[in-house]
Amino acid sequence: MERILITGALGQLGQEFIKYFIKNNIYVLASDIRSPKNKLNCDFEVANAMDIERLDNLVKKYKINTIYHLVAILSAKGEENPFNSWKLNMESFQNIIEISITNKINKIFWPSSIAVFGTKSGLENVNQDPVLNPSTIYGISKLSGEKLISYYNNKFDLDIRSLRYPGIISFESKPGGGTTDYVMEMIESLKKGENYTCFLNKNSRLPMLYINDAVMGTIKYMSTDKIKLSVKDSYNITGFSITPLELFEKLKEIGCKGNVIYKPDFRNKIAKTWPKKIDDSFAKRDWKWKADYGLNETLKETFK
Ligand code: AKB
Fold first, then answer.
1. Whether 294 contacts 240, CB under 8 Å
2. How much is the CA Rg of the chain, to the nearest whole Å?
3. How far apart are CA 290 and CA 237, in angstroms?
4. pTM for the whole thing?
5. 67 with 5: CB under 8 angstroms?
6. In order of start, what are the domains of the chain with their CATH numbers?
7. Which DSSP letter does residue 203 get?
8. Are 213 and 292 in contact (CB under 8 A)?
9. How far apart are CA 68 and CA 10, in angstroms?
10. How many Cβ atoms from other residues are within 10 Å of residue 289's Cβ?
């Protein structure tokens, strides 16, 4: 029986994983650095992922055997204070690995990102194993984490798994501090008939994934027999690729009022170093990954 700890549980992904585990009667302990605004339907503990003793105590107290470590400072926010971002992203991950060794944790999930790619990665359609030259501290920490995954899995016989998420689109749970956040911001503004000032250039194409695909894909991957997983660091996955202009035109087509003004800032520079498209054929082959939501399906969910 799985007993799951989620760190960073109040973030964009964490809240959706909680819903999935509760719905499927899987024990989940949620933890975050702050308390939830609304009561969660699962155990919750305030914990700082930098505090290894606290994490260790929680794992022991709740007899945890699986960890989803979702704590991270994302790409745009990370650039405000790179030292701090590195410290949080890496030290918290190292803490999880240390307590996983001592507590014999069965499986660990740690999200990586398209931020690991860079200008030398063949950005038109990035394959599974290209040159990696990340441009942000977030991307550098994700790449380092990927390297640590293969190292620690090998050295300590752990089962740490990882996916390179593109921009995740969700509305009930919001992202914060990312370069792909414009999608949700634009949809929310135009839905209300308001204008939106977009921080990316109208032609910045980036890969995206609807939250339902992100959650179901991750669950499928985590339950795949280890022997089938040929990628030892982190799998590419994707849903669809769009530009701000294409999104705007689609929103107009479905009747949204409001205009989009383009004022590219430093986040556009980050986007220029990220893939336009992703080749996720290894995930498709090894664990039968398949995205169910394209842009149309995603918008249908959003406007339900
Ligand atoms: C970000 O924009 O920083 C994240 C990501 C792609 O990892 N959404």
1. yes
2. 19
3. 9
4. 0.97
5. yes
6. 3-166+210-232 (3.40.50.720), 168-208+238-302 (3.90.25.10)
7. T
8. yes
9. 12
10. 23
What is the CA(15)–ligand 1 centre distance, in A? Answer: 17
Q: What is the mean pLDDT of residues 188-195?
A: 95
Residue 174 scores a pLDDT above 90: no
Band of the pLDDT at 303, cuts 50, 70, 90? Answer: confident
Q: Which residue CA neighbors atom 1 of ligand 1 most closely?
A: 178
> What distance in Å separates the CA atoms of residue 287 and residue 222, rounded to the nearest whole number?
10
Instruction: Please choose, from the candidates 260, 76, 94, the residue with its C-alpha nearest in 3D space to the C-alpha of residue 185.
Output: 260
| CA atoms of 158 and 100, how far apart (whole Å) | 8
Containing H/E element for 7? strand 3-7
Rounded Cα distance between 172 and 67, Å, is 23
Q: pLDDT per residue over 213-224, tens digit each?
A: 999 999 999 999
Ligand 1: does its nearest atom lie under 6 Å from the Cβ of 114? yes
Closest CA to 20 of 8, 4, 1: 4
| 138 carries an active-site annotation | yes
> Measured between alpha carbons, how far is 277 from 242 in angstroms, rounded to an integer?
9
Q: Which of 195, 217, 275, 288 is nearest to 242 (CA)?
A: 275
Ligand 1 center from residue 113 Cα (angstroms): 6
The predicted pLDDT at position 175 comes to 84
Residues 6+ apart with CB under 8 A from 159: 106, 107, 108, 153, 226
Q: Which residue has the tokens 């308001």?
A: 194
The answer to whether residues 139 and 270 touch, using CB atoms and an 8 Å cutoff, is: no
Q: From ligand 1's centre to the CA of 240, what distance in Å? A: 15
Using alpha carbons only, give the angle 146, 147, 148 rounded to the nearest 5 degrees.
90
Residues 20, 27, 62, 138: which is the catalytic one?
138
Q: Give alpha helix (H) positions in 62-162.
A: 75-78, 82-86, 92-102, 137-156
Ligand 1 touching residue 74 (CB < 6 A):
yes
Which one, of 74, 107, 72, 75, lies nearest residue 91 by Cα? 72
